[in-house]
Amino acid sequence: MKYIQEALGHGSMQITSDVYSHVSKNIESDSIEKFENHTQKIILGAEKGHKTN
User: Per-residue pLDDT for 39 more than 70?
Assistant: First the structure.
């Protein structure tokens, strides 16, 4: 986040955090959703007798 602050010329880390923290939360939420979908496919495949590696 420090790199972003400096690259954008924000005077403080708080400004950068206030403006961009939602982006990190969205990325985290998307990653969790993708992980859950992937693991669900693995579980369903195992239940149907498919190889899961």
Answer: yes
Closest CA to 41 of 28, 50, 31: 50
Nearest-CA neighbor of 7 among 26, 20, 24?
20
Residue 34: pLDDT band with limits 50, 70, 90: very high
Question: Is the residue at 38 inside a domain?
Answer: yes
Which residue is it, tokens 């990653």? Answer: 31
Q: What is the domain extent for residue 31?
A: 24-53
**In 1-53, alpha helices (H):** 2-8, 13-47
SS3 14: helix
